[in-house]
Specification:
CATH topology of the largest domain: Ferric Hydroxamate Uptake Protein, Chain A, domain 1
Number of domains: 2
Helix content: 10-25%
Distance between the termini: 59 Å
Length: 196
């Protein structure tokens, strides 16, 4: 009787160690309908796929998410307060691209960036997401990223930092010295990551 229990314990331990060994070090952010839910500065976590990344973030950030089972598989039907409804719901991108498969099927690699966000979809798809990069001399570049990962400079974007707003020109602005994190916003787009 002890031998089967010991064998079962070893198999369970091996499974746990194997799943941990397959996990990648990735960055994650969750943008809600009205505010950032988790990871404005995209902290690093370990996860094997995009759904595991959301689960790890929900534990670290102490927020709720729900899965719903449908004929095409499980999907994230709610994060935080807002549930999916009508043409709005929760979607994700990995490295700026919206994959054509479920979050549990996207295998992550070290350095990947996972973004979960609430979006309303129209005839041409979902809204673009914003990506913010720091340039030398306290300058920043804002790019608009479509579902296929195509990047263009985000014309009309605004940088926010320390309670101030700075309008970009062709997606670029220099803001001088500041203390807080810089974010980019633009009408009809998902908020950017936060950077120093």
């Amino acid at each position: 009787m002890r031998r089967p229990l010991a064998l079962l314990s070893l198999l369970l331990l091996a499974a746990v160690l194997a799943s941990g060994a397959l996990a990648a070090s990735v960055k994650i952010r969750v943008e809600g309908r009205t505010q950032t839910i988790y990871g404005a500065a995209q902290p690093a976590i370990r996860a094997g796929n995009a759904l595991e990344a959301l689960d790890a973030a929900s534990t670290a950030g102490e927020f709720h998410y729900a899965l719903t089972t449908a004929s095409f598989g499980d999907y994230v039907s709610q994060i935080g307060k807002y549930a999916a409804a009508g043409s709005a719901g929760w979607v994700f991108k990995v490295n700026g691209v919206s994959p054509p498969v479920g979050a549990d099927k996207v295998v992550l690699a070290d350095g990947d960036v996972v973004l979960w966000y609430y979006a309303t979809f129209g005839p041409t798809g979902g809204p673009p997401t914003l990506d913010l990069q720091r340039l030398p001399a306290n300058c920043y570049l804002v790019q608009s990223v479509d579902d296929a990962g195509k990047r263009t400079r985000a014309g009309g974007a605004t940088l926010t930092v320390d309670g101030k707003r700075f309008r970009t020109r062709q997606g670029r602005a220099c803001i001088g010295r500041h203390a807080g994190l810089v974010r980019a916003i633009a009408s009809g787009a998902i908020r950017s990551n936060a950077v120093r």
